Amino acid sequence: GSSKNWQMYRLFCLSAFFFMSNAMTFTHEHRISLETAKSLQHITSNNILDYFHSELASFQGRMGENIGAEAKCYEKVKHMLNHFLTDPTLSPFIQHSGKWVNDLGDYESCKNLSDVSYYLTLGVAVSRTTQLRIGLCSPLECTLEVFSVFKPGIAQFVSSFLHMNISESQIVFTDTRQHNIELSRISSGTVVFFTICIFWFIGVLIASILDYHQKINGSSFWEKFLRCFSLGKNVAGILKSENTIDGNLEILNGIRVISIYWITFGHSFFMLQFYSVYNLDDLIRDVKHGFAMGIVQSVSFAVEMFFFLGGFLTTLVLIRAFLKPENRNVKNLLLIYFHRYIRLLPMVLLSLCFVIFIQPTLYDGPHNSVSAMTKDDCLTQWPYLLLYINNYITKFGKSCIVWTWYLFIDMQLFVIMPIIVWIYLTSKKIGVFLICGLCFASYIIQMALCWYYKLNLSSARDISTASYLDITYNKPYCRMIPYMLGALLCLLYEEGKSSTGKILVLKKAIQSSHVIRYVDYAIGTALIIITILSFYYLDEYPENWGLAFGVFHMISVAPLFTIGLILLVYPVLLTGGKFCFRLSATAYLTLQVSQPMAAIYGTYLACT
Q1: What are residue 124's DSSP bridge partners?
Q2: In sequence order, what DSSP letters do the residues of 291-303 get, joined into one string?
Q3: Positive or negative CA dihedral for 384, 314, 573, 507?
Q4: pLDDT per residue as tens digits for the range 105-156
Q5: Which DSSP state fits 187?
Q6: What angle do CA 450, 452, 458 make, to 5 degrees?
Q7: How far apart are CA 368 and CA 363, in angstroms?
C-alpha cells in the first residue's frame, strides 16, 4: 500500500544520504583503513547510523514475511548499511553512484561489475526539456520494478524541495546499460545508410582525383556530374570571395555569419538543459542574473536576422525571375517551388538518416536517452518533416530534430512569397499593401494569443508550460514580421535603382548626406542594443512589469530589432559600405572573408 511505499522511499532516501555523505572517504582501490573506519563509525553512530537502524527495524516489522523482490532489495540495502565499513565488496555501489543532483557517477566502472550490479539513472523531468538526474550503481536485487515503488515518495519529496508540482509520471528510472545495448543494435537501415555513405565518399575521392588530373573538364553529362563531387571544386566554390550579383550586398554575408556565431553561442548554453550540469545553481544564477547573459537570452534575434535575410534574398531572386511578364506563369511558379524543395532535400535527408541510423550507435553512456528520444520521434514524424509541416503536428520538445522548426517556417513563408511578388510586379501599391497587411495581421494575432494565454517573458522562460514554444514561437503567422520587413527592404532597394519619385529622393539624400547616415546608424544601433538588453532587465526585475507591458515586449522586440537592423543595412546597400569601413565595429560586415563563411549555410542546421 501507499504506507509501505512511503516507508521504503524513506529508507531509500536515508540510505542514499548516508552513502553520499561518506562516499568520499573510500579510496580508489575500494578499501578503507581501519583508522578511517573507526573514526567514521564514531562520527556516525551518535547521530545518523542509530536512526537508520531504527528505521530498518520499524520497516522490517511492517513488511512481515514478504519474500518478493521488494524484500530482497530491502535485505540487500540492510546488509549494505550494516556492513559497508567492514565489507570492501560493498564500496563500489557507493563509489560509482552519483553524490548530488546531476552527478551521474562512474558509468563505465559500474558497468564492469555486471555480475553484481547494474547502472541506472533516476531522472526528474522538471520541464519538457530539462531533467534533473542522478546516477545509481545499484545491486541486482533492486530491479527497476522495485525502484518504481519509490516514485510517489520521490515526487512528493522533489515537489517540496523545488517548490514545484511534480507528478509521479515525471519520475523516470532507466536501466541505462540495457537501454544503450538495445539502442546501439545495428539495423538494416544503418547498414544501408552506411553503405550509401561509403559509396558517396568513394565517389568524392574518385571525382577529386580525376579533377586534379584534369580528366573531367569536358562538357558531357557524366563529366559535369562527376565535377559536382570534386572536393577541390566545392572547396574553391565555398572559399570564393567574388560577388557576381551586386557588390553592395556583401553586408548580407557578414550579417549571416554573425547570426551563425550568435546562434551557436546561444545554443551552447541552452542545450545544456538537455544534459546534466553538475553546478546547475551556478548556471542558473549566471544566466538569469549575469548582465552579459543578455546576449545569450536574446539569441532569438539571431533567428530574426535569418528571417530578415530570407525575406530580402527570396524577394530579390523572385523579382529578377518574374521581371519579364512572359515569365509569370504557372509553370515557372511550380518550378520555383520544386527547385526550393529539391535544394533543401539532400541536407534534410542526410540529417534525418544520421539521427535515426548512426547517432544512437556512436555513444555509450548515461545520456543516450537524448539520442533515443530523437530517434523514436523521427521514426514516426519523418513524413511531416519532409513535408515541412511538423511544427503543426507535434509539440516543440517532442519534434524530430527540434531545431528544424526554422526550416518549416522558412519554407511556409516561402510558399506565399512568389504570389506576393507576382502581385507586386502587377500592381506595386497592392503588393506593398499586402505585405504591410500581413505584418499588421501577424502583430494582432501575436497580441491576441499572448494576452489570452498570458504569455510574457517569464512564461516564455518557464518551458514546463511550453505555451510560448507551441503557440507562437514555431508558427509562421507569429514569426513573419522580420521576414516581411526584409521583403520590404528589398523592394525599396530595387525601386531605388529605377524610380524617379520619392524613393529616388530618399536614396540621394542618404548617399549625399553624412548626417542622415549617422542618424540612421545611431538610431539603428540604439534600437538593437535596447532590445537586446531589455531581456536582462525584465528577467532581473520581473516584479516591475505587468502583464500588459510583458505582452507588448513579447510582440514588439522582434519588429523593433529588425527595424534597427534595416537602419544599419540600408545606407550600406546604397553607399557600398563607405562609412562602415571607417567604423571598426561594423567593418567586418562588408569584408570579403565573411562570404565563404556565409556559404556554409548548413552550419545553422547542424549547429546544435
Answers
A1: 132, 171
A2: GGGHHHHTTHHHH
A3: negative
A4: 888 888 888 778 888 888 887 765 567 888 888 888 888 887 777 788 778 7
A5: P
A6: 45
A7: 7
* Terminal alpha carbon distance of the chain: 45
Contact 95, 23 (CB under 8 A): yes
In 3D space, the residue among 101, 104, 132, 103 whose CA is nearest the CA of residue 119 turns out to be 104
Q: Please give the helix or strand (H or E) that residue 36 lies within, else none.
A: helix 34-45
Measured CA to CA, the distance from residue 279 to residue 102 in angstroms comes to 8
Between the alpha carbon of residue 551 and those of residues 24, 176, 228, 441, 531, the distances in Å are 50, 43, 50, 16, 14
DSSP for residue 557: H
Nearest to 126 by CA among 67, 70, 169, 189: 169
* Phi/psi at 146 (5° precision): -70, -45
> What is the DSSP secondary-structure string of 368-391?
THHHHHHHHHHHHHHHHHHTT-HH
Distance CA 608, CA 605 (A): 8
Instruction: Tell me the one-letter amino acid at 212.
Output: Y
The reported pTM is 0.80
Q: Which residues pair with 123 in a beta bridge?
A: 133, 172
Q: Give the pairing of strands 117-125 and 171-175.
A: antiparallel
Element (H, E) at 131: strand 131-139
Fill in the amino acid letter for 198: I
